[in-house]
Amino acid sequence: MSVVAADVSKWSLRNVSFELPPGSVTAIVGSNGSGKTTLLNVLAGHLEPESGHTSIAGRVAYVAQHKPMYKSFKVANVLQFGRRMNEVWDNDRAEQWLDRYRIPRKLQIEDLSGGQRTHVVLALALGSRPDVLLLDEPLAELDPLARRKVVRELLTEVNDNGMTLIFSTHVVAEIGGVADRLLLMSNGRLLVDGETDALLEEHVLYTGPHASKSPVEGPVVLAKHGRSQSSYLVRSGGTRIDEPWTARYVTLEELVVAHLERGQ
Ligand SMILES: Nc1ncnc2c1ncn2[C@@H]1O[C@H](COP(=O)(O)OP(=O)(O)OP(=O)(O)O)[C@@H](O)[C@H]1O
């Protein structure tokens, strides 16, 4: 069963097609201009796809990259706005989020720091009790401690309320232990779509003597050759190999970089 399904083209998005299960946490990763924001805007219904369709079951909340809010509003006004604009509104949930990060209600949005503004939009989004929460680079303006705390709190929302979370980032370190699914994009194309753990088990790096051919069967993601050594990153799933070749699993960062290098 999927809660989010998409098969869309728009500007530079080319036939991006995937389905996500309810309660999943998906990271959309890709280089600058790869289409992450466009995809989130299409999913949120802010942009019409040129072709294809999307479907999302339930209520959607979207926190856009630049966190648009009325600058002259006080924080308290933002919550009132949320109450008026949303059919379903959980004020306690929004207030709790603001309390947690000690956001003064009397300050105007323009007087808040970038990180404080992030907390206000997250409170607004969570107050609407979304089934699906879309976040475009949500952690960009937060300090490292706040990042960890926000990620932990968002995962609690996922676990406790069955919310489905989709967030974009180009910082791969933000995904480890957080995202159970990965959508990797380059130049508007979806290069990789899968469960993070399964992807890590499938990708094996073989290193050995200079060789013009991979030592194992399976699709080669990236081959590199030095003067006397070759390495092949293969989506094969096995680490058995004859000497002098060695095999090891790769990190998520290595996996992402290899696919991006290949997709250039
Ligand atoms: N209104 C538009 N008309 C035409 N092309 C657009 C429009 N908006 C964005 N694009 C193009 O779509 C591509 C993807 O942009 P998008 O903002 O989705 O990338 P991104 O992956 O979010 O990048 P970043 O990581 O830099 O935020 C870019 O090449 C961009 O120039």
UniProtKB/TrEMBL annotation:
It holds the Pfam family ABC_tran. Keywords: ATP-binding, Nucleotide-binding, Transport. Residues 3-212 form the ABC transporter domain. GO terms for molecular function: ATP binding. PROSITE patterns: ABC_TRANSPORTER_2. This is ABC transporter ATP-binding protein. It comes from Lentzea pudingi. The lineage of its organism: Bacteria, Bacillati, Actinomycetota, Actinomycetes, Pseudonocardiales.
